Amino acid sequence: MSDTIKNISITYDAINENNTFSSGDFISGRLIVEVAKEAKIDSLLIKAKGKAEVLWSEHYGKVTVVYHQKEKFFKLEQYIIQEPKGKGQDYEMLLTGSGKTYSNIVTPGIHEYPFTFQIPQGNMPSSFKGVCGKIVYTLEAKLSRSMRIPSKTKTKFTFLSKEAMDTPQLMAPQFGTREEKIFISGKVSMNITTERMGYMQGEGLKVMAEIQNGSSRTIVPKYCLYQKQSFFAQGKRRVHTKKILKEAGEPIPSSTYQDITKVLNIPTTVSPTILNCTVLHVEYRLKVYLDISFAKDPEIKLPIIILPAAYPCGEVVKTMPPPYL
């Protein structure tokens, strides 16, 4: 910042206890400019933006290739102060409470400029930060003066995609079966069922297992929920996996059959599933496997979709604009 413009910052008002926003919501706040001495401003602009970006590098011998891709969801702009432009250059101007334009001459002190944006309707992905990419929603401001370096500021806000749990695919039970011969020890088999595919953050994931231990060994059923992050750029894909939780059941003795029900508590902090972005996907799998000493562990993988807890069962949250909009 310069000696004249000491600081610019953005604050915004929460509309719920989680401080999250979704399509169609209004986000309101204030752009605060702290001025040390009188100055003339050429333009003062505030933006609301949503975008996804991925970046990684790969090495091929002595050659390093950088992969980079962006996807833009929206960009909204409002001018608080703007010098007159030529014909054909339209832009939205914010007005004072009395309906007048703001003066481009600012006096010493702290100046607050209220603003409101309505986030566009659309199927946009939730905020996310991954290994090689991110989905970010921001409020950005830029103050420009003649013959000076512009002053800029930025703040992030959390966006949650509005996904409903009432679609047949999300509510359909998931099922898998596996049988494995353990050398000369006999066979083991398992049938795994989940009540549905879609679950909310913080919800219990009930896993029903039918396990037949026809071998001469003791086996232990184990459960793992893992996340798969996929990044796409220039025809390439980069994949990273991450364990979210891992639990073990009780040992199953030789030559026995057991019906087991296990409830896995999905963490409230885990990111929602993201499939509605062209450059970045976030997916989840439930892996159930039988831990068998000195043998290959038979496993079953089932897809799991995690939804934001803020919008259960297709609930729609609406907000109204403030009076000055």
Automatic annotation (TrEMBL):
| InterPro entries recorded | Arrestin-like_C, Arrestin-like_N, Arrestin_C-like, Arrestin_domain-protein, Ig_E-set
Q: Give the record's GO biological process terms.
A: nervous system development; protein transport
Checking Pfam families in the record gives:
Arrestin_C (PF02752), Arrestin_N (PF00339)
User: Per the database record, which ranges form the Arrestin C-terminal-like domain?
Assistant: 184-311
Looking at the UniProt record for this protein, which Gene Ontology cellular component terms does it annotate, in alphabetical order? cytoplasm; plasma membrane
| Entry-linked Gene3D superfamilies | 2.60.40.640
In terms of SMART domains, this protein maps to:
Arrestin_C
Q: Which family does it belong to?
A: Belongs to the arrestin family.
Would you tell me the protein name for this molecule? Arrestin C-terminal-like domain-containing protein
List the lineage, top down: Eukaryota, Metazoa, Chordata, Craniata, Vertebrata
